[in-house]
Amino acid sequence: MKQIIMVWSIAALWLMGGTGCQTADSSNQIKDTALAQLPKARPGEAVATFGGGCFWAIQEEFNEVKGVRTTVAGYAGGDVEFPTYEQVGTDQTGHAETVQVYYDPKVISFEKLLEGFFTGHDPTTKNRQGPDIGRDYRSIVFYRNAAEKATIDAVIKRENASGHHTGPIVTEVVPFKAFYPAEKYHQNYLKQHPDEYYIQKISVPKVEKFRKKMAGHLKDGLINL
Predict the structure, then answer these.
(1) What is the DSSP letter of 80?
(2) Which residues form the active site (predicted)?
(3) How many CB atoms lie within 10 A of CB 8?
(4) What is the rounded distance in angstroms from the CA atom of residue 70 to the CA atom of residue 100?
(5) pTM of this structure
(6) Which of 27, 176, 179, 215 has its CA 20 to 30 A from that of 93?
(7) What pLDDT sits at residue 7?
(8) Of 158, 167, 94, 157, nearest to 126 (Cα)?
(9) DSSP codes joined into one string, 127-190
(10) H helices of 32-89, where?
């Protein structure tokens, strides 16, 4: 029954004007395809990198967290330098759509960010998030040192035991190597295109779920999506 519902949901997106992250990107609009700038971490700031399907929702989620100064949508986990969105979409680069988060660890911990991450997407589906299928949409989290690796392992163990998920977590846990910013038109995409069918039906529900989990850790003045 779940498979039938999923197939119908994907078919509905095709019929109603949205298909997935790769083809719902306002193709009828002028796009700034120049690569975004990669900011430098400020003194005392930490950096984390997460991938959980289409980066439009993930970026909005982390942008809303207290202690997060900025985020960048981009690509990581593969072996092609400075890939384009189209290249990553072929699923041949090894990269996943990811978001790099620049945050103050005195305000928000890496552990709390992880808890939000595992709520803001489905970490139990391998190489897939809803209608978005392929390794470029896989669930993946990167660690920069042994302490972060231990924290990730502990949070995954806790999440698996929580009963909050429909199956075991399949998120890849890998050492960080490189992150490549995506094109400028992808940055803060959800806020720029709030009325798109894909955004409303796929991205917004993820953000709303994230907000519930992270209540008390969100910035003031968030708008209704």
Answers:
(1) -
(2) 54
(3) 10
(4) 9
(5) 0.90
(6) 27
(7) 42
(8) 167
(9) TEETTEESGGG-EEEEESSHHHHHHHHHHHHHHHHHT-SSS----EEEE---EEE-BGGGTTHH
(10) 55-63, 85-89
Taking residue 151's Cβ as centre, other Cβ atoms within 10 Å add up to 17
Percent of the chain with pLDDT over 70: 88
Asked whether the beta carbons of 38 and 182 are under 8 A apart, the reply is: no
Task: List the catalytic residue out of 54, 96, 108, 182.
Answer: 54
Render 16-34 in DSSP notation, one character per residue: TT---TTT-S-TTS----S
Report which of 17, 129, 10, 35 is spatially closest to residue 85, judged by C-alpha positions.
35
Residues 138-182 pLDDT 10s: 999 999 999 999 999 999 999 999 998 999 999 999 999 999 999
**Tokens, residue 67:** 């202690």
| Cβ–Cβ under 8 Å, residues 24 and 89 | no
Percent above pLDDT 90 for the chain? 83
Handedness of CA 19, 25, 27, 28 (dihedral sign): positive
Q: Which residue in this structure is represented by tokens 């953000």?
A: 207
54 flagged as catalytic: yes
Tokens encoding 43:
């003194």
Domains defined along the chain, listed by start: 36-204 (3.30.1060.10)
H or E, element range at 45: none
